[in-house]
């Protein structure tokens, strides 16, 4: 049973952000931070993507823990937004659903080793990543424009969208060796940092909205 924080305002009870949502966002960070620390010298955070952690010891399970926990927390945040008045069938709900689903699909279908031919699993993984990296920044921007006016949300969304495009473009150096430095890992990590910031900012914005009479 989910427990929700509730605030009393002028005799009304309003649903704010559930502890499992914020807890899930925080907990999802621990496995991936551990992988970064444990694989120092084994996997380059500049050249290799986060998905490549499945090829280090215990990486597959730890990366799955991060992805699925983040997907569940994001889905919980969407439920909270809907309870706060977000249209259930609107574009934001669809985009946030795609973000959560993309995380889950990318977990079930792992990436291919660098240099290996593209497999069915690897192709699904890449398309799922493209969908989720496009969906959340757009959802955040729409929320900041139509549901919860917030400069912070808008800035995180725009920064994440720009970094998402840069990450996609950085694949050129992998597809065409010798065309430039391989830095897609760096762009992806910056992107994930911005997406986490966006999710935490969104949770905070929902709470402030519910506290406003």
TrEMBL record:
The chain crosses the membrane at residues 21-41, 61-80, 92-111, 123-144, 156-178, 190-207. Keywords: Membrane, Transmembrane, Transmembrane helix. It comes from the Bacteria. InterPro entries: DUF998 (IPR009339). It holds the Pfam family DUF998. This is Uncharacterized protein DUF998.
């Amino acid at each position: 049973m989910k427990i929700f924080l509730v605030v009393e305002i002028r005799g009304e009870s309003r649903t704010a952000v559930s502890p499992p949502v914020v807890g899930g966002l925080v907990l999802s960070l621990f496995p991936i931070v551990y992988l970064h620390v444990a694989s120092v010298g084994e996997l380059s955070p500049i050249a290799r993507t986060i998905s490549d952690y499945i090829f280090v010891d215990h990486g597959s399970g730890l990366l799955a823990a991060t992805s699925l926990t983040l997907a569940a927390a994001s889905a919980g945040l969407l439920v909270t937004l809907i309870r706060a008045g977000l249209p259930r069938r609107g574009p934001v709900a669809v985009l946030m659903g795609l973000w959560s689903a993309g995380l889950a699909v990318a977990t079930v279908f792992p990436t291919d080793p660098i240099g290996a031919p593209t497999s069915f699993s690897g192709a699904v993984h890449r398309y799922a990543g493209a969908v989720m990296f496009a969906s959340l920044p757009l959802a955040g921007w729409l929320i900041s424009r139509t549901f919860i006016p917030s400069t912070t949300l808008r800035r995180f969304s725009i920064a994440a969208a720009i970094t998402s495009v840069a990450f996609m473009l950085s694949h050129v150096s992998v597809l065409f060796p010798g065309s430039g430095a391989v830095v897609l890992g760096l762009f992806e990590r910056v992107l994930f940092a911005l997406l986490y910031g966006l999710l935490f900012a969104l949770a905070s914005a929902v709470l402030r909205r519910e506290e406003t009479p």
